[in-house]
């Protein structure tokens, strides 16, 4: 792919990261159980994306042999979202976003196993760098610490997201990103239907519906669909690593809207994680 032809996809993936990064601020601001938040997010996103698909007159057809992969992808996406929102509630935007941003390095380690691509030894060094960065994110390493628990949940969320992206890589050349995303969102929404019957303050839920709608439209419908579509132009590892701007966007939004200023350990730990991402991005693009 030439520089001229990569400019569009690179702009597309950066726009996707800007929209996806709104999840940090919205996830912290919305004070609901994560399962309920994700269920409502899924419903809003399914409506928005479904209307867009109808407007585009795209085909809804999915071959029978591909349905299992999309089902698994939807389950992993739902687990990623719920765990990520728990991580946000237990910590802050910086720790929550930086902990899940281990997914690019996790992807680079898993891609040779899942898609049988070439393994590069530098990924071991980058993984160690990320682990040290995660250690610095936590004020203290204790399972009784909310920050430590948030990091653990964030990393598990990142693992789910990495696996989901690798599975979808095998399908994105065959189907439109919007169609794949809609089916996965529907799977998430159906699985989380029980959350709609949780004992919560429903007047409070109604007050937060505009922010849930933003989460469904900006973060999910636009952001995740653009990111999934980028797999047509790049490998999953390259697309994941090129998205290094996401936590930076998210932290800036957190400072601006929530006045959450990260501490020095968080900045250093986050810098190490992002250095590993940038190093691998340059290597992958070359």
Automatic annotation (TrEMBL):
| Domain EamA residue range list | 14-137, 149-279
Q: Name one GO cellular component term.
A: membrane
Which UniProt keywords are listed? Membrane, Transmembrane, Transmembrane helix
Pfam families for the chain:
EamA (PF00892)
Q: What parts of the sequence cross the membrane? A: 12-30, 36-56, 68-87, 93-110, 122-141, 147-167, 179-197, 209-227, 239-258, 264-281
InterPro entries with a match to the protein in the record: EamA_dom, EmrE-like
Q: What is this protein called?
A: Threonine/homoserine efflux transporter RhtA
């Amino acid at each position: 792919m030439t520089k001229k032809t990569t400019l569009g996809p690179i702009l597309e993936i950066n726009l996707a990261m800007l929209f996806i990064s709104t999840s940090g601020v919205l996830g912290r601001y919305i004070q609901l159980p994560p399962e309920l938040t994700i269920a409502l997010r899924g419903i809003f996103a399914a409506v928005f994306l479904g209307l867009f698909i109808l407007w585009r007159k795209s085909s809804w057809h999915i071959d029978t042999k591909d349905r299992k992969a999309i089902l698994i992808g939807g389950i992993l996406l739902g687990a990623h979202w719920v765990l990520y929102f728990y991580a946000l509630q237990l910590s802050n935007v910086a720790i929550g976003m930086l902990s899940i941003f281990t997914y690019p390095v996790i992807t680079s380690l898993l891609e040779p196993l899942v898609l049988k691509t070439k393994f590069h030894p530098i990924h071991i060094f980058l993984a160690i760098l990320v682990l040290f960065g995660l250690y610095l994110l936590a004020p203290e390493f204790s399972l009784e610490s909310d920050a430590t628990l948030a990091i653990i949940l964030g990393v598990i969320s990142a693992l789910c997201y990495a696996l989901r992206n690798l599975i979808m890589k095998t399908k994105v050349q065959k189907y439109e990103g919007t169609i794949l995303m809609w089916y996965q969102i529907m799977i998430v929404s159906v699985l989380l239907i029980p959350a709609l019957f949780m004992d919560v303050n429903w007047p409070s839920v109604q007050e937060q519906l505009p922010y849930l709608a933003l989460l469904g439209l900006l973060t999910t419908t636009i952001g995740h669909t653009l990111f999934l579509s980028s797999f047509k132009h790049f490998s999953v590892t390259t697309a994941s690593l090129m998205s290094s701007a996401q936590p930076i966007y998210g932290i800036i939004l957190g400072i601006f809207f929530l006045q959450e200023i990260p501490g020095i350990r968080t900045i250093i730990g986050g810098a190490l994680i992002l250095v590993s991402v940038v190093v691998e991005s340059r290597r992958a693009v070359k």
